[in-house]
Amino acid sequence: MVKYLLVFCSLLFFILIHWVLPAVSGRRQWWPPRGTVKVKCPYKKVDLSWFTGTVNPCPGLYQPICGTNFVTYENPCILCIESLKSRGKIRFQNDGKC
């Protein structure tokens, strides 16, 4: 029974990643234009304004990036999360520190 549950959960995860998220995310931009890690951030369709915590989806990666709020973020992943939390008000400004 547990084996079937794991297969079912894996299938649902695959469907979510490949079909549902691209459909709701709309037009996305690569942040930053240059660099080792680039993120496509779906800032227009995804609303994370309810999320008040902090998260580091790319742990151990230091690639400073400047947001339009003139805050230097540790990496593009964190900037994307902050953009989603602000409903797209915070975006990519430039590579490196502000």
TrEMBL record:
Gene Ontology CC terms, in alphabetical order: extracellular region
Signal peptide: 1-26
Keyword Transferase applies: no
Listed Pfam families: Kazal_1
Gene Ontology molecular function: serine-type endopeptidase inhibitor activity
Chief location bin: secreted
Subcellular location: Secreted
Domain Kazal-like per the UniProt entry, residue ranges: 35-98
Key words, A-Z: Disulfide bond, Protease inhibitor, Secreted, Serine protease inhibitor, Signal
Database matches in PROSITE patterns: KAZAL_1, KAZAL_2
PANTHER family associated with the record: SERINE PROTEASE INHIBITOR KAZAL-TYPE 14 (PTHR47499:SF3), SERINE PROTEASE INHIBITOR KAZAL-TYPE 7 SPINK7 (PTHR47499)
Protein name: Serine protease inhibitor Kazal-type 14
Lineage: Eukaryota, Metazoa, Chordata, Craniata, Vertebrata
